[in-house]
Model the fold of this input.
Amino acid sequence: MQLTPEEQAMLAGKEGKAKRKAMELLVALGAIYGADRLVPITSAHLSGVSYKTIGEGGIDFLEEMAADGKVVVPTTLNPMGMDGERWKEMGVDQHFADRQLLIISLYEKMGVEVNCTCTPYLLTNRPKVGDHIAWAESSALSFANSVLGARTNREGGPGALAAAITGRTPNYGLHLDQNRRATHVVEVEKGITKDEWSLVGHAVGRKLGACIPFFRGLGNDVNCLKSLAAAMAAAGSVAMFMVENATPEQPDSLEGLPVVKITRQDIEDTVKRLRTGTKPDLIAIGCPHLSEREMKELAGFLDGKRKKGDVEVWFCTSKGVWLRCPKERAVLERFGKVLCDTCMVVAPIEGKHKVTASDSAKACAYLPGLCSQKVYCGSRRELMELML
Ligand code: F3S
Done:
């Protein structure tokens, strides 16, 4: 890989230890993937935030990087393992909370914006068409590639941090035009509703694996696109997709591409596969984090109704959306907790809950393995009706 004199100086340690380590990591990644050079980035988004997922090894790495490392591009952070203020109400213990707050302070020391969300694109980190970026968090990076037209590979936490510290990332994969072409056409049967896009995403991810699907006629509803992106990334490592007349990049030609149909039967099979439990003791909505419009829709449906039973309910969102929705929060708090900076998958819910209900195919796919949960997979309307 060709390095500029400035990059060579970083690699030689002339700009400090963190930059040297970051550059070593990027050079190693570039060599593995055959990159010709590093490309400047305009933003980064980091995963590897919850103490549950990174543990003590992750803290050691962050302490080393934070000793003299600073990010040089706007950089945001994925959800952590708890709400920074309401962690006791979530059942999080003191040791976990202390280690979690240490992780956040290390990121803050490096200059990272520490509002923790998987939907940074709804707030302060919204790249433009053609921007090269280094994003981790599979749902967010797929949204950035597909809906915003920015360019990122599926970064891991350390690779994204290294890119944030140097302002560069190796030029391979989805940074290159030739790798951003549709591989399949997907047709979704009429009658499948917006509420079911997450299930569509799971079905496509399972059927096709890593691919770039082109969807015929799905429309451009942002909330649906974020659900679709999350589910496809979780089920099939899909890092980019296109939607007819909706995404900035469209295929030059569809000739010769295999056509895949998603039918009502696929949706029913997906629910069957994901639903492993009945009678949830936690209902968790907000994967990916709820947008302002979703908060309004939820509050609009629940306003004037009464909660039945004492099942625990979480609405997960970002601090930015939380701040913008005081009236909606007041309604939702009568049914459960509106939590910021965290989610049902990265919080330590195992041990406290056994069956979690979610309308997100991504959460339903991860909850058994990462949180030892049985899962009640249902539509958002169904989940809300469980509370009434
Ligand atoms: Fe976000 Fe957590 Fe889902 S990080 S995409 S809410 S699993």
User: Anything to note?
Assistant: Residues 78-79, 118, 139, 230, 287-289, 316, 343, 345-346, 362-363, 366 surround FE3-S4 cluster (CB under 6 Å). DSSP finds 14 helices and 14 strands in the chain. The domain at 275-387 is CATH 3.30.499.10 (Aconitase; domain 3).
